[in-house]
Amino acid sequence: MIHVKTKFERPDADVVKRLSAFSSATIHEAQGRKGALSSRIKPIDRSMSFCGPAVTVRCAPRDNLMLQVAIHYAQEGDVVLVGAGEFTEAGTFGDVLGNAMKAKGIAAMVTDSGVRDTADLIELGLPVFSGSISIKGTVKETLGPINHPIVIGDEVIYPGDILKGDADGVVVVRREEAEEVIALSQARVDKENELIKAYHAGGTTIELCNLTDVLKDKGLLVED
């Protein structure tokens, strides 16, 4: 078995930049309510956000050997995505590895396991999204795959897929679907902006969301 694949197709930087303009929730809704990673995976600070191609890593629980290998091979702008079996009682990533990523220009770190040294990571300014925060240490023992498809946060993710993360969570977009998702996301934003204007102009939720007939069919009763 080849553990590390160093070559895979990344999206164009311009595509990543244009997709980054949209929120994770907008992207999720625009692409048919798909791609949302488990809500367990959240940023260590709500101000953190990122968008970039996935470098996928499989680590054994409580073991960050392959994470360190992945950092070595990752490129500027990549998002290192670590699946560790949702093992939350381990701090698999901290400020030292955070500085290693920051020095290489890596865009973000995402894991379904735990991280630590969060105050230092927040000060460093590297977006870090994790399934938990834990001070418990790790070992460096077990080999695993890098840049193979993995399942993390209930989603199958391929190397080169685009990940967008913000205060609400993380969503994945297939590299080959990115242009379509950008267009759909913009259309959704435009529609929502028009709806917001209509609310401020005096429109009501029942009227603007076309709920009159829906509520009637369901037998809604209102007492004046």
TrEMBL record:
Family assignment from sequence similarity: Belongs to the class II aldolase/RraA-like family. Belongs to the LigK/PcmE family.
Name used for this protein in its record: Putative 4-hydroxy-4-methyl-2-oxoglutarate aldolase
CDD domains the UniProt entry points to: RraA_family
Enzyme Commission number: 4.1.1.112, 4.1.3.17
GO molecular function (one): methyltransferase activity
Annotated organism of origin: Sinomonas humi
Needed cofactors: a divalent metal cation; Mg(2+)
InterPro entries: RraA/RraA-like, RraA/RraA-like_sf
Oligomer status and interactors: Homotrimer.
Domain of life: Bacteria
Alphabetical GO biological process terms: carboxylic acid catabolic process; methylation; monocarboxylic acid metabolic process; phenol-containing compound catabolic process
Residues binding substrate, per UniProt: G94, D95, V96, L97, R116
UniProt keyword terms in alphabetical order: Lyase, Magnesium, Metal-binding, Methyltransferase, Transferase
Gene3D superfamilies: Ribonuclease E inhibitor RraA/RraA-like
Lineage: Bacteria, Bacillati, Actinomycetota, Actinomycetes, Micrococcales
Job of this protein: Catalyzes the aldol cleavage of 4-hydroxy-4-methyl-2-oxoglutarate (HMG) into 2 molecules of pyruvate. Also contains a secondary oxaloacetate (OAA) decarboxylase activity due to the common pyruvate enolate transition state formed following C-C bond cleavage in the retro-aldol and decarboxylation reactions.
